[in-house]
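Weekly puzzle thread! Below is a chain. First person to post its structure in token form gets bragging rights.
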Amino acid sequence: MKKTVLILAAISLVFATTEAKRKKPETKVQVPVNVLVNDVDTMSYALGLNVGSDFAKNLKAIPGGKSNIELLIQGFSTAMRGDSSLLKPEVAMEFFKNYISKAQIKDANVKKEAGEKFLAENKTKDSVITTASGLQYKVIVAKEGPKPLATDSVKVDYQGFLIDGTKFDSSVDRGKPITFPLNQVIPGWTEGVQLMSVGSKYKFFVPYTLGYGEKGAGNGAIPGYSTLVFEVELLDIRPPKEIATTPESNSVVAPKVKRTTTKRAK
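Winning reply:
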């Protein structure tokens, strides 16, 4: 989370809280006062609303998942006014960095353990096959025919889920299949789709090592160390000379992760 976003968001929170504290209960009815007396006031308030709304959502993504809003506002207000602080700035920054680092490690371990447990249980289920790389898959609809090379482009319909069932991406929902070079997506896709023939539909269970690794993807939609589940239907295979298409920018499967080359399966 960028420092600038935190500062701007804190401004909105300070304004909102300060305004609330100023209004003391009274027995008589008060006439609303228009505090937006000029364009700068209106811009400032609008900025507070917009950034504050975004910050409220992003705050939930802080490693550890916990924060104290009142103390966040107090710290920001203290710094803005130049008042005496509970912590020296350098001590505060060092503590913040260490806290985030420890919380990230803890969160990563939780996600890795959850993924490992999920895959360990999943591989014992009927019809689930595990490859040498650790990729797991299940054939939903089987078809005969040629299978793509890693150097081919493929046209697919797919849906992507976290192991808790959260859907993070879906060409099905967009109503538009996606075409992309098979060697320019995550390793789990590169390996898995090569097992498929046109018309077949598979379900893939992808360890984080074959997915988006430690960093994740999709602006937080896929956290780091996430085990992923994809339902994929192969619609077409196109040799590299036939098409040169880049995946849609709004597709999570678009980022290039690794390039591989294999022989076409029969």
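Puzzle host: Confirmed. Bonus trivia for everyone else. Residues 196 and 256 are 20 Å apart (CA to CA).
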